[in-house]
Amino acid sequence: MTAARNRQIVLAARPQGMPRPDDFKLVEAPIPSPKDGEVLLRTIWLSVDPYMRGRMSDAASYAAPVAVGGLMVGDTVGEVMESRDPSLKPGDVVQAYVGWQTHAVARARGLRKLDPKLAPVSTALGILGMPGMTAYFGLIEVGKPRPGDSVFVSGAAGAVGSAAGQIARIAGCRVAGSVGSDAKARQARETFGFDDVLNYKSENDLGAALRRVCPNGIDVYFDNVGGPITDAVLGHINLHARVVICGQIAGYNERGKEMGPRNLWQLIVKRARIEGMLVSDFQAREAEALERLGRWVREGRIKYAEDVVEGLENAPAAFLRLFTGANTGKQLVRVGPDKI
Amino acid sequence: MTAARNRQIVLAARPQGMPRPDDFKLVEAPIPSPKDGEVLLRTIWLSVDPYMRGRMSDAASYAAPVAVGGLMVGDTVGEVMESRDPSLKPGDVVQAYVGWQTHAVARARGLRKLDPKLAPVSTALGILGMPGMTAYFGLIEVGKPRPGDSVFVSGAAGAVGSAAGQIARIAGCRVAGSVGSDAKARQARETFGFDDVLNYKSENDLGAALRRVCPNGIDVYFDNVGGPITDAVLGHINLHARVVICGQIAGYNERGKEMGPRNLWQLIVKRARIEGMLVSDFQAREAEALERLGRWVREGRIKYAEDVVEGLENAPAAFLRLFTGANTGKQLVRVGPDKI
Q1: In chain B, pLDDT over 70 holds for what percent of residues?
Q2: Which of A107, A333, B11, B66 has fewest C-beta within 10 Å?
Q3: How far apart are CA B190 and CA B179, in angstroms?
Q4: Superfamily assignment of A130-280 in CATH?
């Protein structure tokens, strides 16, 4: 039984600084009907991710912004309710990119069919989805870790950071990281196996804290955060260090230009490299990443954590948790039950 | 006939900000005698280079600082006056690293013998020396230019920048650059063949100036300067751009931490890379660079310019010209005549 109406969350206004609840609006629309080659999906899970802050802004970026009044974009897991394509049938569960809504029509081609027996389907939005692949390709292809390297991860308890740290340990590295609460520090150490963790909010001297948690310096820095922790790390890198710029969440709500110490001289001293990465550039290698990540999860070598907020109407609140650091683990929104 | 005494310039005090004349001191010492395997050199040319500012400071860097009271380090070209090694004989001209002095004893092994018939021996301190090799390896190995790329060089009329720009043109790139005077802009265009040049001192809007001189964006940025021009370039890079950090002369006289806009988000948007380089890492490939640079100079495909200050006592003034931008071309100090 489907709901009579499709509920959607649209962008009501472009945020200035930290988004506010009234930058979003819940609207209703008819449930659409699939055409040939399409399916009707009922959303079970919605992923909220830091990159969405960029879509709310009309500043130049790597992707077009959401229009004011337009549907918020995002990854989802949904159940096929009606199919007009031979590749999918009602009851199938798929990963889609259909945004913040309870129902959607999508082309069957381009949906990833999930096997609920292999892993909980919500993992298709986390460790076995975009965040996991971001960690895999960012660390392996940009960070180029070598066994014995010292790796440091900012946002170590987050969806991407926790995966990056665990992949680095599989690659034979020693791994430390930074988080924003003592609870996350404990989680990073005890659940995700980080060798050492610092809470940047309780350290007076980030440089001293880095020397403590990375006594042999830093060969690979996987940065999800930016800002002061990144400034401090750049003063602590080793010769030929690789810095992976994966995210800069500390700056996403900045108005105007964020200022910090210039750090390029340090790159000469250390002949080091800073490189930005975007997971979509590695789309052609999705199967490789998912096969390996899936194996490591099944073997218990990679753990993941999920933080669930109930109800599409609470998706804006769930999204804002990313910026206050309230979430522990991958932030998800449960939009509908597994089965109806 | 040698002078009765060796004249030397030593570091009198660690500079605060821009070095001043009394940070240096001219002293005299006996002319040393070579032992077995050594030669006595009479300095003809001394090179002054921006990196020497780092040696005057005791801040952590890639090389140890000059001690207060110690001889200023530097590359030289000199004539062998006396030899106790079979590989060199009096009258031979060599490139050495014996610092700011009129005479020096050096181990024969480790000196580069020059052929005055192939090129003026002063070029061993410029296009056929450290600056030329810095341009070659920095551009080729870190910048990785592809034919058709748009290359931008800061410090385009300098010893390294002028070479980097010309090598980029040989590699099939379009080349623009920045300089600090209209005379240098003319020199970069007319002598060094840059396609377009901006004078950063006379532009109100560096972003607009970059769009004018690099209408197709920037694929490779070869940075000798740092500071505001680099901030502006990072806003104008293309997808997969490579930024070579070769020098940051704009900041060498800064006291404390220099602040600027944070730019790492832009690296994600453009999946771009910033990498520091140091020519000494490529020492094993010196012959490759010198063979190619020598060929390009002989073929007239690479031009160079020299700016000569007379007399060892004027070496500090020559050095300071690098920071005021007074020099046009490779700054040299003539310490002695070609032949005595």
Answers
A1: 99
A2: A107
A3: 14
A4: NAD(P)-binding Rossmann-like Domain (3.40.50.720)
